[in-house]
Amino acid sequence: MLERFPAGAQIHAQGAHADSVAYIRKGRVKITAFSNRGKEAIVGILHQGQFFGESCLGDTRVRTAAVVALEDCLITSVSKETMLATLGAEREFSAFFIARLLTRIGRLEEDLGDQLLNLSERRLARLLLILADMGRESGAPNEVNLSQEALAEMVGTTRSRISTFMNRFREQGLISYDRHSRKIEVYVALLASMLGL
After folding, report:
1. Is 15 strand, coil or helix?
2. Which domains does the chain have, with CATH numbers?
């Protein structure tokens, strides 16, 4: 089923019945998890060409995170039963799905290592590079459009620390941004060299 979701619309609710896999045809979504006390953590941002909700293909019966459209999105939802049948019958699609899943698992492993081993400033630099790369696919090369609050949640630090790091990156010529706008232009080669990439 093909559905349109405007920016800010909830696509999946945490705790809802997990019975389908979704594919992003257009747009970006954020995946968030909420604690029992209501604290929100942004788990990831996905973009065009990525799947979400795939944990329903295993033993997961409820959604472990919420998914919200960051911009107008076009989403294809496929029931668990149809997805499992298609994966078994269509080799080409199965290879495509597995490749996307393995890429996402690799990114999650990198993110976990980053959280455990790196300082907040390096985590922010890495996150900006990842988000700038996503922008390239959506037609906005090297541009990130997120608030400092959202960046702070994703990095695991405070908004004031993100502001300090962003100012430092701007002074070093690694990024440019307008304080009144959420648009950040990332100078990918320079920021990557800071990380030793």
Report:
1. coil
2. 2-114 (2.60.120.10), 119-194 (1.10.10.10)
